[in-house]
């Protein structure tokens, strides 16, 4: 692991490209509805049942990382939370993703929108776990 001396973020590779920003988790939550903040904390708690991670605020999103970033919370809506899970193949045989977009040759972004805590169901947890485990495999292959 390499730690940027400027922003103190940890990365899998030495001198990995990133943005050194001073934006915090609190900056993203400031002014958001109680519903959105509650969904955010529920989402983080559910991911903690899968494994440990670090929170990495960036310019436009908050990412979760173990070895690399395996999930991004990219929109804090008035009454919803949008999350992106990069997976190593397309999973279009489910209704839990409202959008799927390719990200190069190896990963495909799968987008989930949560309006209620119940939207984070067993099926979504399955894909969250998959994204987390793909990240763990990356750490083993380095």
TrEMBL record:
<protein>
    <submittedName>
        <fullName>DUF5655 domain-containing protein</fullName>
    </submittedName>
</protein>
<feature type="domain" description="DUF5655">
    <location>
        <begin position="26"/>
        <end position="134"/>
    </location>
</feature>
<dbReference type="Pfam" id="PF18899">
    <property type="entry name" value="DUF5655"/>
</dbReference>
<dbReference type="InterPro" id="IPR043714">
    <property type="entry name" value="DUF5655"/>
</dbReference>
């Amino acid at each position: 692991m390499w730690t940027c001396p400027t922003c103190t973020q940890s990365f899998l590779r030495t001198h990995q490209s990133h943005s050194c920003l001073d934006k915090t988790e609190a900056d993203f939550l400031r002014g958001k509805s109680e519903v959105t903040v509650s969904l955010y904390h529920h989402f983080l708690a559910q991911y903690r049942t899968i494994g440990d991670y670090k929170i990495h605020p960036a310019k436009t999103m908050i990412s979760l990382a173990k070895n690399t970033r395996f999930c991004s919370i990219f929109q804090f809506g008035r009454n919803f939370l949008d999350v992106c899970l990069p997976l190593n193949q397309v999973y279009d045989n489910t209704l839990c993703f409202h959008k799927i977009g390719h990200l190069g040759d190896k990963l495909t972004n799968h987008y989930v929108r949560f309006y209620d805590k119940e939207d984070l169901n067993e099926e979504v947890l399955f894909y969250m776990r998959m994204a987390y485990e793909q990240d763990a495999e990356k750490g083993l292959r380095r």
